[in-house]
Amino acid sequence: MTELLLTPEPWIALATLTILEIILGIDNIIFITIVVDKLPEHQRNSARRLGLLLAMFTRIALLLSITWIMSLTVPLFHLFDHAISGRDLILLGGGLFLLAKSTHEIHDSIEPGEDEGPNLKPRGYVITLVQIALIDIVFSLDSVITAVGLAEHLWVMVTAIIISVGIMMFAAAPIGEFVSNHPTFKMLALSFLILVGVSLMGEGLDFHIPKGYIYFAMAFSLAVEMLNSRLRSRQSGQ
User: Fold this and answer.
1) 170-174, 177-181, 226-230, range with the lowest pLDDT
2) Could you tell me the pTM of the whole model?
3) Which pLDDT band holds residue 87 (cuts at 50, 70, 90)?
4) Taking each helix axis from N to C terminus, what angle separates 183-204 and 86-110, rounded to the nearest 10 degrees?
5) CA–CA dist 152, 163 (Å, integer)
6) What are the sequence ranges of the domains in the chain?
7) Are 55 and 165 in contact (CB under 8 A)?
8) Are β-strands 75-79 and 82-85 bridged in parallel, bridged antiparallel, or unpaired?
């Protein structure tokens, strides 16, 4: 064990996996931000922390059951000459859920009910955590499979997950508050979730959309919106 700790390969794998987990966790943070925003303000921080802890334990549990995870790639049936596996069904279901959820949130934000303000009525605390736990399973599948391919030691993979979740816990609160206070950025985040939902469904149908394209589109849109926000602030200050 001592020799293992003194060799550079595990540490390189740990740094690589940690960065990868943070990047792949961006969509998770956005989803958590959107669903937690429906809670009363005094419950949001605890819901974010519990949601990210659920994400951490979900990913570790998937790592420990990697044999079952890898078996999900075995075809279950064929649809239009396309082999459908358990992984494909999970990705398709998760993609449909994200599309439906994001579309519903956009509709409610633009056309709130008669008895509701722009921030909508609060939803149940437990229901929010359940949604976070379920969608994280979808987000975790590919990252867990990638982690197994990049690292040989379980402790490296588990440590990378714990470090990345710890970093995301510090980032989640300011991101959540910023999105809540800026409706246009919230709309941008919901649009990003729609892109992720389409990407998941594409993956489920064996149509691979490089995530780099989606992240680049999101980063470009975010940069443009930040410029617009700054311009609006300067114009309102004049």
Assistant:
1) 177-181
2) 0.70
3) confident
4) 160
5) 18
6) 9-237
7) yes
8) antiparallel
